[in-house]
Every structure is written in structure tokens, then in C-alpha cells.
Amino acid sequence: MRRILMAKKERKEKKGGKTVLKVLCIILAVIIALGLIGFVMNRISVKSNRDFVKYSIKQVEYDAQLVPELEDGVWTFTADREVKVLQLTDIHIGGGFMSIKKDNMALNAVEAMVTAEKPDLVVVTGDITYPVPFQSGTFDNKLSARTFAELMEKLGVYWCFAFGNHDTEAYSLYTREDIAEVYEDSTKYPHCLFQSGPEDVDGTGNYIINFKNTAGKITRTLFMLDSHSYTDNDWFGVLWKYDCFHKNQVEWYENKLSELTEKNGGETPKSLMFYHIPLLETKEAYDEWAQAGFKDTANVRYISGNAGEHKTVVYSSTHNEGMFDAILAGGSTDGLFFGHDHLNTFAIEYKGVKMVYDYSIDYLAYVGIAKYGLQRGCTVITISPDGSYDFAMENYYQDKYKPVSGKETVTMDQYNEDAGYIAK
Q1: Conformational region of residue 158, where left means phi above 0, alpha means psi within -120 to 50, and beta covers everything else
Q2: What architecture is domain 2-395?
Q3: What are the residues whose beta carbons fall under 8 Å from the beta carbon of 59, sequence distance 6 or more?
Q4: Most distant CA pair in the chain, distance
Q5: Collapsed DSSP state (helix, strand, coil) of residue 338
Q6: Beta-bridge partner residues of 356
Q7: Is the separation of the CB atoms in 69 and 15 below 8 Å?
Q8: Predicted pLDDT at 51
Q9: How far is residue 350's CA from residue 285's CA, in Å, rounded to a whole number?
Q10: How confident is the model at residue 406 (pLDDT cuts 50, 70, 90)?
């Protein structure tokens, strides 16, 4: 009897083991199948938007397009006329099957504003890509990077770029170095002026672009810098602990100013700085202004726009490695242009330096933002022959911008009236 019971137990255990194995095989098969389906769907969605770029986008028509040249390794525009720089930020192309429609909206918005403004240079201050799988359906950040580069190449407009936190997430398939290789491929994208920058300086994409006159004088320099992503072990950015410029980037900036001064016959050229995550001083300036009842102080002057982000309003790093102090000491950089906080569109002046949030493009990252309209657009910067500059915030939803696929329906109501200052 005991043998019979033992035999039955063994048969039962074997049967149970086979059942578990079958279940595991089924689960594995489902995972593989879903992965293959996702891979195919992502390729189809990306192809759809790349075909849109290839067959629907036309080259921008210029009367006389400025063509930059490499001078001592620096892309340089030469002109005795006013030049136009167009800033775009937070485009957030998901690049997957879940974001195909919103990606197309973003591409349309970029095309419409670039075509209408006809800038000499487009500067993108981060977050071209958004490889967040539960919103885009993919971890692949290279496909969306290529889609945007192809758009700009089809438009035939010179452009450059500073990395944002979402361009290369910890879970993305490709690193900053990988994406940099895409943008630096001059055979495919000769209109892209991005440079990886020196290897002994932290970050990818610390470089400058010069504007000079025909007499050889540098009239304005653009500093492009990598503000990195996250810090304090917040690897996935879920705690909003953002990084900032590192100490050796500050030193690089100071050294560049010395080089530019020497090259410019002893005169330090004026400059603008473009990056993604706002400096800590931007938060300090906003907080000082807010505590003064949204009235100008000895340090802060309101220029324009709205503060629409919740709670903290300015989501900067809590770290400070001295970049703003170096800016004040250098006496060159009088304008900072950045993005990151998609609902902030304000510009203020702090201790004589303008701090400007660009309008975002984002249709994907913020929940519900595709239906908002007040925050979407671009910043148009005009640089005069004498090096002075001015800027204008341009909302996307105006008649001069005519996207290929037509504009979507949005609300122009204020999105967050209790968040911060609302210009009346």
C-alpha cells in the first residue's frame, strides 16, 4: 500500500512539475510575442512619421540663407545684418506606437514655426526625444532622434541642440554619446551644428557658436551646455532631483570667455547661454519676486509671461557649482534661455541677466497638455549687427503658423491659475 501511495505521489509531483513548466513556457511565449508585436508596431509608427517628413515637408525658402563655416573648430556665421535665432524646447517625440499621433502633432508644430519664421539658426534646448514606455510604447530614443534630425534636414535649416533629461533616460536603449553620434553625422545631417565638445569636460554637447561681422569682430557668442539629468541617486527621475552644471563646465565657460576675448582683440563679446534645466538662481529670482507680491525688487524685474507649474514652480537643481557667479563675473552673458518646465512661459531679469523660459512643444509628457494652448510656441531672438539682442515669445496658435496637417483644437484658458503668477 505504501508503495502504491508513493508512486501516486511521484506521478502527481511530475505532473505538477510539467504543469508549472508549461505555464512558464506560455508566459515566456507571450512575453516574446508581445515584444515582437511591440517592435513591429513601433517600426510601423516611426515609419509613418518619417514618411510624413519625407513626402509632406518642404524646404524653407530663404531670400539669402546664411551658411556657417568652421573656424578653429567653431561654427561661425558671418553677417553685417540682423540675424534671427529661433529657440524650440521640449519637443518630446515618443517614437513608439502609443505616441504616433502626438508625435505627428509635434512635428507639425516645429515645421510650421520654422517655415514661417525662416530663422538663420534653430536652437533646441533639450528633450527632443521622450522614450518613456508607458506613454510612448518604446525604450528606443534613437528612432525619434533620427526622425527630428530628418525633419530639420528636410527643412534645410541650420540647427543645434543641448541635451535635456529625457533625451537619454537610464532605461533608454541609447546613451548621450550614441545620440550625439546621430546628430554629428554630417553625411546625413549637414545642417546640424551640434558638437559633442571636449571629452575632459562633464556632459555631452558643451560647445559654442559664433556670430561675427565681415570685419572679423565677434558680435555675439552662443554657449550650448549640457545641464545633465538627475542627481542624488534619483536614477529614474521619479523624485525630481535634477542635476546642474558641474564645476569643470564652469571652468570651461570661463576659459572660453578668455579665449574669445583674446580672439576678439581684447574685447569680450556678448553672449547668450542655452541649456535645459534652469539654474538654481532662476528659482531664487522667482521666489524673491513672488514674496514681494509679484512686484519688481532691487534684483528682479518682470519682463513677460506666466508661471504655470504647480507647487515648486521652478524645478531646478538644489545644487550650485557657481555658474551664475561666473556669468556675473565674466560680464559677457546677458541672456539665459532654457526649457524643462513646460507650463512656465515667463521671463525675468535677475541682477542684470535675462532668464527666459521658452514655450514648449510637448503634446505627450504632461497629462492633458495636448489640449492646452497657451504654453505652446517658440522664442524668436533677434541679434543686431552691433551685438545687442531682443526676444519675443510667439504662441503657436496664431495665423502666421500654418502646419501641414492643420492645427488641433485646444483650450486657450489658463491651465493652472493657483500655481504662480498669471499675467493679466
Answers
A1: beta
A2: 4-Layer Sandwich (3.60)
A3: 154, 155, 156
A4: 107
A5: strand
A6: 337, 347
A7: no
A8: 87
A9: 6
A10: confident
Helix, strand, or coil here: 292? Answer: coil
The three cell numbers locating residue 301: 524685474
How many Å apart are CA 361 and CA 375, to the nearest integer?
8
Residue 34 has pLDDT above 50, yes or no: no
Q: Which residues contact 411 (CB under 8 A, 6 or more apart)?
A: 371, 372, 373
CA angle 10, 14, 18 (to 5 degrees): 170
Distance CA 423, CA 91 (A): 25
pLDDT at 5 over 50: no
> What is the reported pLDDT for 11?
57
Helices and strands in the chain: count of H runs, count of E runs: 8, 14
Report whether pLDDT(238) > 60: yes
Q: How many residues are recorded in the chain? A: 424
Joined together, the cell numbers standing for residue 291 give 514674496
pLDDT higher than 80, residue 400: yes
**How confident is the model at residue 203, as a pLDDT?**
98
- pTM to 2 decimals? 0.90
Amino acid, res. 59: Q
3-state class (DSSP) for residue 353: strand
